[in-house]
Amino acid sequence: MKQIATPDHVGQASCSYGRPSFSLRSLFLLATLAAALAALLPVSSVGSCCVLAAISLTISFGCPRTQRIALLLVPILYLPYLWLFVDLGQSRWSSYRWQWIGMYWQLPGLLFELSVHPLDEFWFQLVTATATIVIFLLLVTIGRTSRLAAVLTCSIALLASIANSLICLALYRA
């Protein structure tokens, strides 16, 4: 059945999920994320690798609108956690800090794990990685609908990410 173009659709680019098309920009971004994964691979957890793979696939296979909101959300979600890479008054980098750096890509979903009783390593990785991927994809899905939705989504994500980062900092120091 063929759709008839209504005035709402005139002049707007279609952004349906079709065959992926690669541009030089998306390949560069994918290479940048792959380099970040490769740099953190010796200390990364399986969950962090899964989260980074989901982000990379969203950026590389999404339509231009999806790519734009995903590229806005990645720094918004992860820049508040840069305190992990700053010295914080400690003279050396301990194995405890490297453990937290390995979970860097999972940190937005850490509060979901804290709401459940203490889990072993496998379930911890599964819950935090799944929660982070669901949060990211939900924010991308909501934010790609309109400019207003993108602004509201990014604003709410920034506030929630800062709050979650402060909670993670308190857990790190505890």
What does this structure look like?
This protein has 174 residues and is mostly helical. The chain has one domain. The chain is 64% helix and 0% strand. The protein contains 7 helices and no strands. It has helices spanning 24-40, 46-61, 64-78, 95-102, 110-114, 121-143, 147-173. Helix 1 runs antiparallel to helix 2 (46-61), helix 2 packs parallel to helix 6 (121-143) and helix 6 runs antiparallel to helix 7. The chain is globular and about 45 Å long. The model is unreliable at 5-12 (pLDDT under 50).
Largest sheet: none
Task: Quickly count the domains.
Answer: 1
Topology, number of strands: 0
Which class of secondary structure composition applies to the elements?
mainly alpha
Q: Note the quaternary state here.
A: single chain
User: Beta-sheet strand percentage?
Assistant: under 5%
Which whole number gives the mean pLDDT?
Answer: 81
Shape: globular
Count of DSSP-assigned helices? 7
Rg (C-alpha, Å): 18 Å
Order of helices and strands: HHHHHHH
Low-pLDDT stretches are 5-12
Distance between the termini: 61 Å
Helix fraction, binned, reads: 55-70%
